[in-house]
Amino acid sequence: MPRKKAAKVELPTSLKGMHDIVEPDYFAYQGFFEKASEIALYYGFKPIELPILEKEELLNTTIGENTDILEKELYSLKTKGGNHLAMRPEGTAGVMRAYIEHGMQSWPQPVMLYYYGPFFRHENPQRGRYREFRQFGLEILGTSKSVADATVIKVIATMLEEAGFKNLIVKINSIGDAESRQAYTKELISYYKKNLESVCANCRQRMKTTPLRLLDCKNDKCQSTKTDAPDSIGFLNAPSKKHFKEVLEYLDALDITYEIDATLVRGLDYYTQTVFEIVEMKDTSTDEKEGDESHDDTQTAELLSIAGGGRYDYLGKKLGFKKDIQSVGACIGVDRVIKSPDHKPLDSRINKKPKVYFIQLGFEAKLKSLTVVEMLRKAKIPIMQSLAKDRLSAQLAVAEKLKIPHTIILGQREALDNTVIIRNMANRSQETVAIPDLPAYIKKEL
């Protein structure tokens, strides 16, 4: 009888749109987080850690029931107790919930917070975008002052500049307060009703539910209609005009390059007044073959959106607070930062470059080795080691491969004598040092 073909065993893989972060990417993420946190702290922001799970009702209220996030992208679950929860798709809702829950309105205002971590959306994975993605966010709660908007933009731009981005442009718009938006929305719907044949089915639905998001449509069919749509700035009332003018004056004073984009509205329902995105302008040129006169050198510009945010003055009241909590915030898409060719990896404080490679030979040496490693750790001397390897040649080969200039050799005799051998890997010279003197010797001689 013919043998049965063995079933193919499929090895486990990560879920679609989710990925492991290993070295060196791990330290790239960590380095960005540390630098961004440092900048935020210098500007007066304080850290907050938000839970991964929130009540689904919170997100329904804050984000808007007709947004793509809630209709298509939310990771939701029902607990055994019947509670409806969701994995956080963004941070602002959780920060506002925390502000109200912990009575932060009684703190000195404004309250300035920063956070970092994974967020989750069941969207189609694409370049620099995942279903589990990482963001660094800033929020200023408890002030309507335009200087808060400018501060958020400045700090976010500074973080990106420190990470190596050079040609940054702030695309900015104002969608006004409630009064301004009411007048603008009415005009926008009227305009789109006259152009129903020129827009996609999604936009025809948005006219009934979230008309401002008509300007957020990426469908090619809708682009010409969107370009000719009335802009929100023309419908701003006096207070909204004043606020937006002041924000732009701050950006001018800070020498921040910006561009007013009348189609910019952001994708969430809670935004009011200032909305913005920070993009990197990438110039690409295509040089044709020499002698080919049918084509000129072409210059094109590609925009990569890496951060965005805006003001959300009415969000607190939507959550049941007795009055509006004027607030503004923004977040950086850290995955896009790390994957960008313009990203300049920032040194992580926890990633210490080893000064020596520690070699142990024999059981007696291994018994003593962790005590020696702990002594070096307390002296803040980072090392590399291969505890699982036994042969001297194998461990020396690893040290050479890692280009570590010195090795510590602890063998059976050295373990009994309470000494180690220090070897210079460049010239193979060696010196015997007593273990208690080892930290001082390394710091002085190496």
SSE blueprint:
Layout: H1 25-42, E1 46-47, E2 53-55, H2 56-63, H3 68-73, E3 76-78, E4 84-87, H4 92-101, E5 111-120, E6 132-141, H5 146-162, E7 168-174, H6 178-193, H7 201-209, H8 223-227, H9 238-253, E8 258-260, E9 272-286, E10 298-311, H10 315-318, E11 327-333, H11 334-339, E12 356-360, H12 363-378, E13 383-385, H13 392-401, E14 406-410, H14 412-417, E15 419-424, E16 430-434, H15 438-445
Parallel strand pairs: 1-5, 7-8, 12-13, 12-14
Antiparallel strand pairs: 2-4, 3-4, 5-6, 6-11, 7-9, 9-10, 10-11, 14-15, 15-16
Q: Your description of this structure?
A:
The chain is of the alpha+beta class and 446 residues long. 35% of the residues lie in helices and 23% in strands. It has an 8-stranded mixed β-sheet with strand order 1-5-6-11-10-9-7-8, with helices on both faces. Strand 12 (356-360), helix 12 (363-378) and strand 13 (383-385) form a beta-alpha-beta unit. Helix 1 (25-42) runs antiparallel to helix 5 and helix 5 (146-162) runs parallel beside helix 9 (238-253). Mean pLDDT is 88; it is low at 285-301.
Short synopsis of the structure:
This protein has 446 residues and is an alpha+beta fold. It has helices at residues 25-42, 56-63, 68-73, 92-101, 146-162, 178-193, 201-209, 223-227, 238-253, 315-318, 334-339, 363-378, 392-401, 412-417, 438-445; strands at 46-47, 53-55, 76-78, 84-87, 111-120, 132-141, 168-174, 258-260, 272-286, 298-311, 327-333, 356-360, 383-385, 406-410, 419-424, 430-434. The chain is elongated.
The class by helix and strand makeup works out as alpha+beta
Strands, total number:
16
How large is the count of helical segments?
15
Main-sheet strand order equals 1-5-6-11-10-9-7-8
